[in-house]
Every structure is written in structure tokens, then in C-alpha cells.
Amino acid sequence: MEEKFDIQSYLAKGVEQIVSDALRATMKNPRESAYMLRFSAASRKASRKRAKTEAAGEHVPAFLIASITSSCNLHCSGCYSRCSEATSDKAPVDQLSGEEWKKVFKEADDMGVSFILLAGGEPLLRWDVIEEAAKRPNMIFPVFTNGTFLGEKYLELFDEHRNLIPVISIEGDRDETDSRRGEGVYDKLISAMSGLQERDILFGVSVTVTSENVRKVTSDDFLSSLSEKGCKLVIYVEYVPVTKDSRDLALSDEERAYLADGAVRARENFGEMIFVSFPGDEKGSGGCIAAGRGFFHINSRGGAEPCPFSPYSDVNVRDTSLREAIRSKLFALLRDKDILADDHVGGCVLFEKRELVEEQLAKGFPLA
Ligand code: SF4
Q1: Which of 207, 124, 223, 104 is nearest to 164 (CA)?
Q2: Are the CB atoms for 240 and 80 separated by under 8 Å?
Q3: Which atom of ligand 1 is found nearest the CA of 144?
Q4: Domains along the sequence of the chain with CATH
Q5: Residue 43 has pLDDT above 70, yes or no
Q6: Rounded CA Rg of the chain
Q7: How many other CB atoms are found less than 10 A from the CB of residue 45?
Q8: What is the pLDDT of residue 357?
Q9: Which pTM value belongs to this model?
């Protein structure tokens, strides 16, 4: 009988690795390292809490992704959030309020969640929610922002609350970035980075890796330029071809291997920086870690989804607790039927299996 993959120890090791990398990256920065030492203790306590819950037969993930708004000022080509209409130019409808996100953050903290990634749309459009996140120092909130609203007010908030870590989206140099994100966006990102660097605030970048930029964004030139600007974290997000005509931007197996080698080389050459790949090595995690295994996604209206790339939900955290959401029929189906561990083409198993998920949702989970 094949031994069940121990996802909780895998997550605890993953969090420990991120924390030790962060302590190394912030060693020369007294304010950041003071916060990281405090967080290191809180994350160990959280890991013990999750392990205890696991032993009692209930699983709690270490990470959550929260899309706190459906609004955005940019129209990036191939934006998965706009393609799935999770982001649109229409006035936001039925968004969770600051108070409702405060309840979600409190419950996550009590359960032993250590990281909540704030996304959107453009999350800096929700000052009220980010203020609530600032009040939860036991958890780190990487804020995935397009960087165009990173002005004085936010610099002060990030300076004061080091559990908020801005992660700025960039595609490469000016040409790559502006061609996807719009004229002039690159210059705004660079000025945002210098504002963060002047205040010694830990920040990172998120790079959507495609067949077009994989060589550029893993090159020493690109990474040196980021390091000089004070960047300490690089998150590579493999492009998921949300539209038929963008399939050629998806990484081939060779390019995926090139990205993996590039990340290894980068860790060797840029010891002061942290490198994370998403979805990264699924074989090492016993399959995809979505649907509550390692994390799950809460959309701006409170829907609990397996992942931002799988925008389906059968429960809403407005009416249920996070604990109940993790036990949703959809999540249980994906985990217990090993759909997350299925072999698949491309970077995202749930994107490849979207018809199956839609069918199960429509028919009330006959497979469950
Ligand atoms: S900034 Fe993000 S949410 Fe906005 S259009 Fe670009 S990729 Fe989409």
C-alpha cells in the first residue's frame, strides 16, 4: 500500500526554508531582521498548531491566496483574472468588506495559516483591507501589486508594518514589461522600487514566465539589475494559457526545465535573494498543492476556489468558516480522487481539468 504523502511536514519544511532565506536576505537590515525573527517564532508555533489539527484528522493549509478586489487600472495582455472576469472594468459587485476580510484574517491566524497572498485585480485599491492585514503580525502578507499606486501613503504603511511585503509584477526590461502592461508602466515600477529601497523595505517581484521571456528573466543581467534596486525576492509564475490564442506562450517541457535550472543557478549566484517558482516542482509535493492541500483561493466575493487558475467554488466564506470551506465537496473531490496528482500537459493540472471540474459542479459531484 503506497504511503500517503505527508503534505503537512512538506509545508512546514517549505515555510522553514522561506523563513531562513528571509532571515539571510534581511541580515543587514535591522528593522526587517527584527520582524523576521519575530515571524520565525510565530511560524513555528503555527506549524505546531497545524500538525496538532492534522493529528486530530483535520487539515489546515499554511498558505491562502486572497483576491481582495475585482478592479484594476491596467489591461495587461493575457491577464488570467480579466479572462475569467474575476477582474473587470464594471463597478465591483458584492465584494467582501474590510470587516469581512478582518474576520477571515483572524480565523486564518487562529488556525495556524502563516502566509496570505493578497492579489486582485489591483490590491492597492483596497486600503481598508490592507490596513486589516497590517494588524496581523503573526502572518506575512505578500501583496501582489502592479506597482502603479505605490506612493508615499503606502510606503509609510509598508515601512511601519513589515509583515506586508510588496511583490511588484514585472515581465523583464522596459520593452517586455510595457508591451504586456502598457506604455510607461515600467518607469512607474522602477520609481516604486527606489522608494522601497530608500526606506530599506523588503520587497520582491513577480514574473510571469512565458516562452518569450524565460531566458531573459533567468539571466544574470536581469537578476543583477533587480538586486541593485534592492529586490530580495523573485517569484516565477509559470504562464497559464487562459486563452486558446495564447497557448504558444505556455512553456514547453524543455523551457520548464530551463526555468528550473535557471532558478537553481540564481540561488547559487544571488545568495542574498530568495527564489520561488509557482507551481514549481509538483512531483516534489505529491502533486498540485491547491484545493486546500497547501493553499486555496478566496475570490473578491468570498467564493472559496481551489486556485486563482481554477475559478470554481461551491462554498462562500461569507456564510461558512474557513474550516468548513477546506472541507468543501469540490476540494474533497479534487484531493481524495487524486485529481491534483494527475499527469498533465502544461503548468496547471486544474486548468487542464477544467471541463471535469465544471461537469462535477454542474452535476452535484457524482464522482465524490
Ligand atoms: S495588473 Fe494584474 S489584474 Fe491588472 S490587468 Fe494586469 S495582470 Fe490583470
Answers
A1: 124
A2: yes
A3: 2
A4: 2-363 (3.20.20.70)
A5: yes
A6: 19
A7: 12
A8: 87
A9: 0.94
